[in-house]
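Support case: Bottromycin A2 derivative complex. Customer-provided input:
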Amino acid sequence: MRRHDELERFEATSRDGTLVRGVRRPGRGEPVVLIHGVAMDIGVWPESGFFDALPGAELIAFDLRGRGASERVGTAEAHAVDRYVEDVQAVLDAFAHPSCSLFGLYFGGRVGLLTAEVDPRVSRVFSFCAHGERVEIPVDAVEDEAAAIAGGRGHAYLTDHFTAAGAPRWMVSACDRVDRAEVAAATRGLLHGSDRGARRGFAGQELVLITANGDGELDTFQAGARRLGAQLWLVDDRTRVRAAARVAEVGARVAGLLGTGAGG
Ligand code: MRB
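Agent response - structure generated as follows:
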C-alpha cells in the first residue's frame, strides 16, 4: 500500500487564534515537522519526492497561515515571522510529542531556526537554503515584489521568475496554487522581524544548514554554520533555486541520519 493513503488530517490553533491545517503520515521515531516556503503549500512535500525519501519516519506537514488549507489572515503584521514560529509551536502542541525535528524549505528553514531558539522540544533543524544570519531587507524591492504578486499577473510573476531561474516543476506549480493577496501580505510580512538573525537555542540541539555549492552567499552559510555550531551540507548545484531539485536527495540523507531510511 502506498504510504500516501495513510495521511491523517489535523488542525491546530495558533497563539493569535489562526487555524492551521496539515497532514500527518505515521511512522517510526521522532516526527519530522515540515515547513514549506513563502509561495508554497504542503503539496510540495509529496511532489518533490520528499515524502518517499523518508519512507519510515513520522512526517507532519502543515500549511503556513494564508497558504493551502490554513486560515487567511490578510495583513503584513499577521504574517510577522514570530506568528509563523507560533504556527509551528501550535502544531507541536497538537501532537504533544516531547521532541521532534524540523525541516524547512527556504524561508521555512529560517522559521525552523527561529523556532529552535525558543522551543526546547526541537531537537534538530534542517534548514534547506536559508541561513540564520541577519539580513538587510530592501523595503522598496520587497514592496515592489508584493505589489507584483498581488496584481492580476501575480501568478505569472512568480512562475516566470522561478521557471527562468531553473526551479523544478513542483516549485513552479506550487506558485500557481497560492492565494495572491495572502502571499503579497506574507511578502510584506518579511518586513516584520525577518531581518533578525537566529541564535543558538538549547543545549544539544543539532542544526544543519543546507545549500548549493554554487550559492552566491555560500560564505554567509559557512560563517553562519560556524557561528551557530551547525553542520553545513552542500548539494551539487549552481544556485539556491536550482538546488530545489535536490530536496529528495537531501531527504534521503536526513532519513539516514535519523535511522528511518529504507531498511533503517
Ligand atoms: C528568503 C531569507 C526572508 C526571506 C529565504 C531567491 C527574491 C527578494 C527581493 C529582495 C528581490 C525582493 C526577497 C531576499 C532573499 C531569501 C529569505 C531571509 C529573510 C531567498 C530565494 C534567491 C537570493 C528563494 C526560492 C524560494 C532578501 C530580501 C531576504 C535578502 C525572490 C524573487 C523571485 C518571483 C522569493 C520569495 C517569495 C516568492 C516572495 C517573497 C522573498 C522575499 N526576492 N528576499 N530571500 N530567496 N528561492 N522572492 N520572497 N524577497 O529573492 O534569493 O535566490 O533565499 O534573499 O524571498 O523567492 S526563496 S519570486
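The radius of gyration is 17 Å.

Case will auto-close in a few days if no follow-up is received.
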